[in-house]
Amino acid sequence: NWRSRIVFLLKTNSSKPMLHLIGNRPSADAVNQWAESLDKLLNGTTVFSIFLKSEFCKENIEFWTACEDFKMLTSRKARASKASNIYEEFIKSEAPQEINLDLHIRNDIIENLQEPATTSFLAAQVKIYSLMENNSYPRFIHSNLYKKLCAAARQEVKYNKS
């Protein structure tokens, strides 16, 4: 499947891209747009998530995604349940996927858990987005994985023009 093939690529040192083995790979346009901004990369791709897993910081993208899902909830009951899950998974001390937040942001989240609003995790989400944008994203853009995806995109464009 797509995910296992990307993981395989992360481990491959071959100079010849093996991306032709991947079904449903991203289009050449999508791969090229990823270099424009983190927002373009976050827009529906699992490649960055897989990269973050290889960098041992997958919790950042998973938290960010959970917050995006949380903001879409309209039911107070659903929002309270999801807020509790996000807190247990990412915020509380020693959480399974604890993210790096300062005490002020963490305390604000705890105060809002009883009656969470769609903006309850906004400060934390902005902080994690900033960490990804300033640290993980540049490493991804300079990674062998992204270089291989770009090379495959160039080959695809070249092949399609022939």
Q: Which properties best describe this structure?
A:
about 160 residues, mainly alpha, Regulator of G-protein Signalling 4, domain 2, 9 helices, about 0% strand
Could you explain the architecture of this structure?
The chain is an all-alpha fold and 162 residues long. It has a domain at 58-134: Orthogonal Bundle (Regulator of G-protein Signalling 4, domain 2), CATH 1.10.167.10. The chain has 9 helices and no strands. The longest helix is centred in the last third of the chain and has 20 residues, at 122-141. It is elongated and about 55 Å long. Pfam families: RGS (PF00615).
Instruction: Return the CATH architecture of the domain at 58-134.
Output: Orthogonal Bundle
Tally of individual helices: 9
For the sheet with most strands, the description reads:
none
Computed structural class? mainly alpha
How far is the N terminus from the C terminus? Answer: 28 Å
> Which fold does the CATH topology of the domain at 58-134 refer to?
Regulator of G-protein Signalling 4, domain 2
pLDDT average, as an integer? 82
Pfam family, one: RGS
Organism: Echeneis naucrates (Live sharksucker)
Protein name: Regulator of G protein signaling 2
Domain RGS: 44-150
